[in-house]
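Below is a filled-in request sheet from our internal design queue. Each sheet records the structural input a requester submitted and the sequence that came back. We keep these sheets so that new team members can see what a complete request looks like end to end.

REQUESTER: design group, bay 2
PRIORITY: normal
MODE: inverse folding
CHAIN LENGTH: 149
BACKBONE (tokenized):
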């Protein structure tokens, strides 16, 4: 282990119906799992819930140290090659099934080093266990739709 901590942020996103993002007060944080180790990095959830307006890089460094960073979808795609890898990742990190409340149980990630799909929309992932909501914008999939960004 290189000692670096990469985060799939518990950085739960709560979206409003407008272009602004806001934290949904009914969302609760996902209980972090023990983490998932791969390629010398350990992927963990943050312990706090963050809004989309938060400087997430600073937040994860404050929570986990100077070497911590927000996980990148491009890297997850590279290391999670099988459906079993995806399921283990979700379970060990502590990603909860999103369910019908789209404002809860979403996790911020980066994609190709970028935080935003188009401002103010951040990249995020959600656990759907293969059943994607029909109105969910899918830009990629892992594990047969087990995780969707």
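RETURNED SEQUENCE:
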């Amino acid at each position: 282990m290189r000692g670096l901590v990469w985060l799939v942020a518990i950085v739960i996103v709560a979206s409003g119906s407008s272009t602004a993002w806001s934290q949904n007060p009914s969302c609760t944080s996902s209980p972090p799992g023990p983490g998932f180790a791969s390629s010398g990095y350990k992927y963990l959830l943050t312990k706090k819930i963050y809004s989309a307006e938060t400087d997430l890089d600073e937040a994860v460094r404050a929570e986990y140290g100077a070497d911590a960073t927000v996980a990148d979808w491009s890297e997850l795609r590279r290391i999670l090659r099988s459906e079993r890898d995806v399921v283990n990742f979700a379970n060990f990190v502590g990603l909860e099934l999103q369910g019908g409340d789209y404002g809860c149980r979403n996790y911020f990630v980066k994609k190709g080093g970028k935080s935003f799909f188009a401002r103010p929309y951040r990249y995020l992932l959600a656990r759907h266990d293969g059943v994607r909501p029909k109105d969910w914008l899918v830009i990629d999939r892992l594990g047969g739709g087990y995780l969707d960004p």
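SHEET NOTES:
- The chain has one domain: 4-148.
- The radius of gyration is 14 Å.
FILED BY: M.R.
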